[in-house]
Every structure is written in structure tokens, then in C-alpha cells.
Amino acid sequence: MMATGIRTNPWGGQRQTRWQQAVDWPLTIAAILFLVAYSITVIGDVDVATADLLRLLILVSWALFPVSYLVEIALADHPWQWVLHHPVNLLFVLLPLLRPLRLLRVVAHSNVFQQSAGTAFRARVLVYLAGAATLVTYIAALAVLEAERATPDANITSFGDSFWWAAVTITTVGYGDFTPVTLRGRTIATALMLGGVAVLGVLTATLSSWIVQRVSELEDRHK
């Protein structure tokens, strides 16, 4: 969590909390660098020297997360309980492309959302879900393009095609004009479809709840 929102938990303890506060911004910056370097590697047309530099940057920024994760476990008062209660931390280690989602916390904890408890909670959920849907769509487009474009019978060969495919897939529209043909591409597609149903379902429910609350508040004011 961000330094402004970190609280000592019963499994992590104060030492772990101080470590999280110290590395939070460096890890967030590393997540941004990872995404930028990966994007250029997939989309850009770079020379060999630049490609090697980008691969080194990807490797270094990736390595920071498992190292930090292991340190968090070592500093936790109750390591296994902390691991079980913080699956997102492990998810960031296993799936590096999801790490830019850390940026959403900066927006979610801004003063814009410091309102009543219920309203602030819904606003933060909306920020997380909308931001997550956008980032996951972009990330899936990159991953599928990397997996597909070298295959002879692939029809996803440009970033425009892959982004369109990712957008219609996560929204469950599924026109079928572009489809992955590799095992890796289809695995990404399956994860994106499942994630799209979950994210859009929760996003719609949260937005509906927020609208109902606002309408109720307006009605109460005019009574």
C-alpha cells in the first residue's frame, strides 16, 4: 500500500511496515519502467543495442519485486499467515505486467475521494476497476501481439489489431474478426475473458449502487 495508507497488520508487524513504506515508491517506479520497456520492446522498432538495454531494464525491474517480497516474508512477525492474507503481493511477483496497477492507489487515496465513508469506498472501487480494466486491456494487447505475430497463420499482427481484440474480448462482445491461434495467445484470451466478466460485473454493480445512493440523497434533500 502507499506510505500514506500503510497500517501495521497483525501478521506483518512494524518491521515489515517500515520496509513497505521505504520501498513503495521505488517499486511503483519500477512497475512503470517495466511496462514502458516492455511496450517499447513489443511495439517499437529498435536496434540491437537498445533492445539489449530494454531487456536489462525489464530484468532488473522484474527482480526487485521477488526480492522485496522475500524481504517482506522475512520481516513478518507471522510469515505464513501474512502470505495467506496477502495474495495480491504474490500475484505481482508471478505476473509482472500487473504491477502498474499499483499506480491506481495513488489516485484512489487522493483528496478527491475523501468524502463520506460509503461514497469514498465506492469511488475508490470504481477507480480501481476502471483503471484495472484499462491497464489489463493494454497489457493483454501487448502480450497477445508478442505471442501471435511470429506465427505464420496469425491474424493479430499489429498493435492496433491486438488492442481491438483485447477491447472486444474484455467487454465480452467478441466479434471474432481477430482470434489468437497460439496456445499462449489462447491462454491469455481465456484469462482476459474471465477477468472481463468479473471486472465489468463488479464495476457495473458498484456504479449502480453509487447512482442509487446519490438519487436517494437528492430525494432526501427535497423532502
Q: Give the tally of structural domains.
A: 2
What CATH architecture of the largest domain do you see?
Answer: Orthogonal Bundle
Give the percentage of residues in beta strands.
under 5%
Q: What is the string of SSEs from the N terminus onward?
A: HHHHHHHH
The CATH topology label of the largest domain is Helix Hairpins
Helical element count?
8
Q: Report the end-to-end length measured between terminal Cα atoms.
A: 42 Å
Q: Find the structural class using helix and strand composition.
A: mainly alpha
Question: How many strands in all?
Answer: 0
- The CATH class designation of the largest domain is Mainly Alpha
Q: Report the major sheet.
A: none
- Low-pLDDT runs of 5+ residues are 1-6
Query: Average pLDDT, to the nearest integer?
Result: 80
Based on CA atoms alone, the radius of gyration comes out at 20 Å
Shape: flat
Give helix % range. Answer: over 70%
